[in-house]
Amino acid sequence: MGVSTSAPAAGVRLVAMDFPPVNALPVRGWYELADALRAAGADPSVRCVVLAAEGRGFNAGVDIKEIQAAEGHTALIGANHGCAEAFAAVYDCPVPVVAAVHGFCLGGGIGLAGNADAIVASEDATFGLPELDRGALGAATHLARLVPQHLLRTLYYTARTATAEELHRHGSVWRVVPRAGLREAALELAGEIAAKDGALLRLAKAAINGIDPVDVGRSYRFEQGFTFEANLAGLSDGHRDAFVARSTGKE
C-alpha cells in the first residue's frame, strides 16, 4: 500500500498509487506521490513517466474521512498543500508524464490527469469533480485542460462525470482501451516517447510548459482559497459529514 516505483522498460518509470479501498489519498499520500514523481524525473536515464493506480479506480481525490477526523484545520491545510505539490510534480516533471486512468478519476484525480502530458484510459474510466457535493472548490484549472469551457462549467456545477470516450472525442484522451489492456497501452505510448533523444525531450517539455497560456499552479492555488473560505464560513463541514456518513453506511 502507498506509492511504488518500477522500471518496466528502458527509459520508462512507472509510478503507481495504491491506497485502498478507492485511492482517496491521505495527506502523506499526496506528498509521497510528489516525491516519487520528482525522483523519477530527476533520474537522467528516465525519458518518460507513467502514472497509474492499482485497485478499483485511478484516484478519488482527498481522504475526506481523514479531514473530518482531525482537530482544527490541520488536515484540510495539509490536503490543500499536498494536492498542490503532487499536481505540480506531474506538471513540472522534466520528462513527459502519461496518465493511465481506469475506473473513477475524481477530484484530485482530475488534478493529476489534467496536468499529465498524455492520457490513456480504459473503457470504464469516468472523469469529474464532485467538489460542490463535498463542500470544496478546486481542480477546475485541470478539468479545463480536458474539456471545453461550457462543458467544464456544466460538469462542475452539476458534479456530473464524463466518460473516457467523451474525452477522447474532445481530444484530451489519446486512446481508450479495454481495462485489461490499459497498462500495456500506456507503456506502449511511453515507450514510443522514451525512444526519442532524452535531452531533447527535456527541452521539449520545458518549452511546451513555457508557452502554456495558463499558470496552472497559480490558478489552482487561487481556487483553493475559496475552499478554505467555504470552510471558514461553515459551508463545508455539513457536506463532508454527509459524505462520510454515506460512505460508512451510517447515514
Automatic annotation (TrEMBL):
Keyword line: Lipid metabolism, Lyase
Domain of life: Bacteria
Keyword Ribonucleoprotein: no
Family of this protein: Belongs to the enoyl-CoA hydratase/isomerase family.
InterPro entries on file: ClpP/crotonase-like_dom_sf, Enoyl-CoA_hydra/iso
Organism encoding this protein: Streptomyces rugosispiralis
Gene3D superfamilies, alphabetized: 2-enoyl-CoA Hydratase, Chain A, domain 1
CDD domains: crotonase-like
PANTHER family tied to this protein: (7AS)-7A-METHYL-1,5-DIOXO-2,3,5,6,7,7A-HEXAHYDRO-1H-INDENE-CARBOXYL-COA HYDROLASE (PTHR11941:SF169), ENOYL-COA HYDRATASE-RELATED (PTHR11941)
Name assigned to this protein: Enoyl-CoA hydratase family protein
